[in-house]
Specification:
Distance between the termini: 24 Å
CATH superfamily of the largest domain: Transferase(Phosphotransferase) domain 1
Largest sheet: 6 strands, antiparallel
Helix content: 25-40%
Strand content: 15-25%
Radius of gyration: 30 Å
CATH class of the largest domain: Mainly Alpha
Order of helices and strands: EEEEHEEHHEEHHHHHHHHHEEEEEEEEE
């Protein structure tokens, strides 16, 4: 059996009206549809036989739940799933992304080299977010990568779990659509697929973005020559500049080394992130890469939800793991401006050091010369030692941008010689909108007291953790980079794997008898 091919106007699961089929791979059929609520969605129906595989259904549920916990600006999560009673076919539903897919974007030909580099960079950064959560796509292709407008060209990845479905029902149609972007290890059933397979796919996609053509000679026509591709994918690689020349396209030789590493037959020889490839493309196009990444290995810590940790070593390509260079270890603090880092210290640090030395010396002398209790005293002295400490300002900004009240017992400073405290950075307003409404909202692990339809939070510029909760839904937690007044939309999804498939009626056959 294959996925049901239904006509426009048919209703799936009693609430999704189909408009048109937009993709078919044998084991799955993808449709544009309208939900009973009026929202436009994308609905994917699977082979009904797949619904009898409890292991596959559980695996898909795990993948979809993991995707739902990632930032919405880098993934397209599943919003609903279940079984269609009319066809007994499992289905999944996701939003219809308004941004064009990479496939649609390149129908008129390749984009400018610098734009290609930005797109590849954003694909690599999105994958880094997924890989940090041990979530591997393994089925990247131009139709499930969505590209935003200039100048950022933000990327969202969809169709997670497609590799699981494809491996259970290897129809020729499905493989014909996927082989132009598949790694050699896809041919080896016993091999463990991981991040290296995604890096390999990004390299093939990067060649396609730069040229509008497949890297493989066997995939220059549709459908591709599968037997020839199996031999080609395991053979030694031709330099991309030479492959481009064969296709009548000019690619700089400066790209050859980066592509050679990313397209290595051996997964262990590929870089851990496709950012190296993006760096080479942007540099060859005469642009400036948006981090100081220059070919090293990115850290393996969590990208999507950074924890408070020590600052990364100098030269770390993605400091703070949020995709922005120079992010501080303490969330909420803006990065130190370069000019401030290079400015000579002058005499101020020397005066501060001398003051501290005098302060410590005075405390030590007081402790040593303090009168000791009488020798015949039967009780230890309970007289407290007075240690002079610098007085705090009544209100000081915390690392998270919230105001922390100083101790009420601390008297105000009366020293005329004390230098005035420098004012804190001006706060900006973050507007949080939850769908459905939030029941609890935490910013940098601190509860927001008043939650409204549009909750306003005042924060210092920088990175902040945002956690939204609602009973019966998956908790949303992500990092927000606040540099100006902005609005953040939070969308909740319900947890849980797909429901169990309905039991199909018994069908009598030559080797099967019904009770």
């Amino acid at each position: 059996m294959t996925a049901p091919q239904l006509a426009p106007g048919q209703v799936v699961a009693g609430r999704y009206t189909l408009r048109a089929m937009v993709g078919f791979s044998g084991e799955s059929a993808t449709y544009q549809a309208v939900a009973s609520s009026g929202h436009e969605v994308v609905l994917k129906l699977f082979d009904p036989a797949l619904g009898q595989r409890a292991d596959v259904m559980a695996k898909l549920g795990q993948i979809h739940n993991a995707v739902a916990q990632l930032p919405l600006d880098v993934v397209v999560p599943v919003a609903d799933s279940g079984y269609d009673t009319a066809t007994s076919a499992p289905y999944v539903v996701s939003e219809r992304v308004q941004q064009p897919s990479l496939e649609a974007l390149l129908r008129q030909g390749p984009v400018a080299p610098l734009v290609a580099g930005r797109i590849v960079e954003n694909i690599a950064r999105a994958l880094d977010v997924c890989h940090a959560r041990q979530l591997h796509h393994l089925a990247l292709k131009p139709s499930n990568i969505f590209v935003g407008p200039a100048p950022e060209y933000g990327v969202r990845l969809g169709d997670f779990g497609a590799s699981v479905v494809r491996s259970t029902s290897p129809a020729h149609v499905g493989y014909e659509n996927s082989v132009p972007w598949s790694a050699p290890e896809h041919l080896q059933p016993a091999s463990a697929l991981g991040p290296a397979a995604d890096v390999f796919a990004v390299a093939l996609l990067a060649f396609y973005i730069l040229t509008g053509r497949s890297y493989w000679e066997s995939c220059q026509s549709s459908p591709p020559d599968l037997r020839r591709w199996q031999a080609e994918v395991m053979a030694p690689r031709m330099a991309v500049s030479q492959r481009g020349a064969q296709l009548g396209l000019a690619l700089p030789a400066a790209l050859d080394a980066a592509f050679a590493r990313a397209l290595s037959v051996n997964p262990a020889e590929r870089p851990r992130s496709a950012l190296e490839l993006a760096h080479a493309i942007v540099t060859a196009a005469g642009g400036t890469f948006r981090s100081d990444y220059a070919g090293g290995q990115p850290p393996a810590t969590t990208v999507a939800f950074p924890e408070h940790e020590a600052p990364p070593p100098m030269g770390n390509p993605i400091a703070g793991r949020g995709g922005h260079p120079g992010a501080p270890a303490a969330l909420g603090l803006p990065p130190i401006p370069p000019e401030a880092q290079k400015k000579p210290g002058g005499a101020k640090p020397i005066l501060i050091g001398i003051s501290l030395a005098l302060l410590v010396g005075g405390v030590a002398a007081f402790v040593l010369l303090r009168p000791k209790p009488a020798a015949d005293s039967s009780l230890p002295s309970s007289e407290p030692v007075s240690v002079p400490v610098p007085l705090a300002s009544p209100t000081m900004p915390s690392a998270t941008g919230a105001s922390v009240e100083a101790s009420a017992s601390a008297p105000p400073s009366s020293s005329a010689d004390s230098p005035p405290l420098e004012p804190a950075s001006e706060k900006v307003e973050l507007l949080v909108v939850c769908t459905p409404a939030c029941e609890a909202l935490l910013v940098d692990n601190e509860n927001v007291e008043k939650i409204e339809e549009k909750t306003k939070v005042s924060l210092l510029p920088g990175k902040h953790t945002l956690e939204a909760r609602r009973a019966g839904y998956i908790t949303v937690k992500e990092t927000v980079d606040v540099d100006k007044a902005m609005q953040k939309e939070v969308r909740f999804f319900k947890p849980g794997p797909m429901p169990q498939a309905p039991k199909l009626p018994c069908r009598r056959g030559i080797l099967k008898k019904c009770p």
